[in-house]
């Protein structure tokens, strides 16, 4: 999640949130929080870019992983921070469950497709045999009877 989004949820300014993380660097290693590159930030803020001095961001935003969001509740010590952190963690759990359900559904579909491939080959053989039965046999037969 981006720092500005988390700051809005926690009810603090983005500057205050980033200041709290800078004051506690040991709690936010690179796998908890990282700064977006210009290209990544450009994709996010294509429409919202403003010039320096007229508002907007002067620095690239920070992105927090699930562990970084959990660590924020220990840095931002307010009742709202704890309540918001609980909601965010529950959302991450639900998201993980949804992803696992999609993976399970994908495995089931793959199994069905494999069975269809096996049965499809058998069905092809049956259809060919039926077509062979439907087509007339073209054997040349002699006429029966008397010829002068």
Model description:
The protein has helices spanning 3-10, 14-23, 38-44, 66-75, 79-134, and strands at residues 33-35, 62-64. With 148 residues, the protein is mainly alpha-helical. It has a two-stranded antiparallel ribbon with strand order 1-2. The longest helix is centred in the C-terminal third of the chain and has 56 residues, at 79-134. The mean pLDDT is 79.
A few lines on this structure:
This protein has 5 helices and 2 strands; from the N terminus they run ααβαβαα. It has 148 residues and is mostly helical.
Task: Name the features.
61% helix; two-stranded antiparallel sheet; mainly alpha; 148 residues; 5 helices
Share of β-strand residues: under 5%
Task: Report the average pLDDT across residues.
Answer: 79
Q: Provide the spatial order of strands within the biggest beta sheet.
A: 1-2
Report the count of strand segments.
2
Q: What is the element string, with H for helices and E for strands?
A: HHEHEHH
Tell the overall outline: rod-shaped
Helical segment count? 5
Major beta-sheet overview: 2 strands, antiparallel
Which structural class do you get from the secondary structure elements? mainly alpha
Helix content: 55-70%
Name the poorly predicted regions: none
Q: What is the CA-atom radius of gyration, in angstroms?
A: 33 Å
């Amino acid at each position: 999640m981006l720092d500005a989004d988390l700051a809005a949820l926690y009810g603090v300014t983005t500057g205050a949130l980033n200041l709290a993380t800078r004051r506690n660097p040991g709690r936010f290693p690179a796998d908890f929080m990282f700064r977006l590159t210009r290209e990544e930030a450009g994709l996010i803020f294509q429409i919202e870019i403003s010039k320096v001095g007229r508002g907007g961001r002067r620095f690239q935003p920070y992105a927090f992983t699930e562990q970084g969001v959990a660590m924020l509740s220990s840095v931002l010590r307010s009742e709202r921070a704890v309540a918001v952190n609980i909601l965010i963690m529950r959302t991450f759990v639900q998201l993980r469950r949804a992803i696992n359900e999609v993976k399970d559904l994908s495995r089931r579909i793959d199994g069905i497709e494999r069975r269809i491939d096996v049965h499809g080959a058998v069905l092809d053989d049956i259809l060919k045999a039926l077509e062979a039965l439907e087509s007339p046999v073209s054997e040349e037969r002699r006429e029966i009877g008397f010829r002068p």
